[in-house]
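Lab notebook, bench 4. The sequencing result for the construct came back, and we need a structural model before the next group meeting so we can plan mutations. Quick request posted to the team channel:

Model the 3D structure of this chain.
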Amino acid sequence: MLNVDLKLSKDTRKFAEDVLSRLDIPSKVLDRSAILPGFLDVHVHLREPGFSYKETIYTGTRAAARGGFTGVCTMPNLDPMPDSLENLEKQLSIIERDGVVRVFPYGTITKKEKGTDLSDMEALSPYVCAFTDDGVGVQGKDMMRMAMEKARSLNKMIVAHCEDMELVKGGYIHDGRYAAMHGHTGNPSESEWKQVERDVGLAEETGCAYHVCHVSTKESVEIIRQARKRGANVTCETTPHYLTLSDDMLEESGSFRMNPPIRGEEDRAALIEGIKDGTVSVIATDHAPHSAEEKSGGLRNSLNGIVGLETAFPVLYTELVKKDIISLERLIELMSTNPRERFGIDLEQDFVLMDLEEPFNIDPETFISKGRATPFAGKRVFGKTLITVCKGRVVYDYRW
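Done. Here's the predicted structure in token form:
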């Protein structure tokens, strides 16, 4: 195996070597591979209950295993939404039955994500990883303050989709050059960073632990950087598509439509700097599968969201590590170490065997996920998952 120092614990490395010794993997494959800690994705949409035609907990967690993820935190925009213990229990029973990897549900911040009344946060607290109204964001400042005060009392984190709907004004791609040249309605960067600015102030005021979802703008990065310098308990994540794409690369395809939108090259550069200096401490996928019909309307008429569990590591390893932008160790921190620490999730002894040298092409038709929409279709990449072990059990083997 490749001699890659990723600071795996001695117990995990010994456990991994013992497991792999029993799997009869060809030596030529092992020689170009490395043992990595299992990844944790703190932002996925598994769509069940309520929207199983898009994805199920079974298909989504199998896709996670194929991508090297041994833990996922699943967003609450479901039906029913987990805004009460009764509703959450429906989701927990499916997770218990069908989850292939570890699944940690979020609870909503407000009832039905309407932004008017707090969810039953106290009852939900022992069973959820954090609270979020992902997909819409909390529009009212006073409501967000109340939520943060309650979350702090429960020792839970607020995880925020930041989007000021009054500033979006119908925009669906970045308000930049591509939108102007092709007649699209632009969504300005301000719709994100103004709410980040508001929430960071509230987090400092209340002392609540606060994490920003899918940061896409240079202004958001700088707001978070300055807050962290002041000692605020604030973190953020970004995604592979914001780190590797800009709006100059857009195509007239639903596979390039997501929320927030792919933004300008200056934003992408700021995000790269953010992962280098630690301002951006987590990379998540925002895996958001839809049906083929829902993604068939081009940029203008498709639903927001792409899949990412099966492409995240190879895209990031190819575009960031192999191009010497960040080290492999730094990528593992962003995808495994940091999200585990921030969310208080233990994945000890979970591991992944990854082929780092044999290239392959991303082919959506081979995805395990029900979703097929990805802007990386056809891309030649490195970093193929060979074996994923979760809770001591092989949950993915490339030979299956």
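The longest helix spans residues 190-206.
Will bring this to the meeting.
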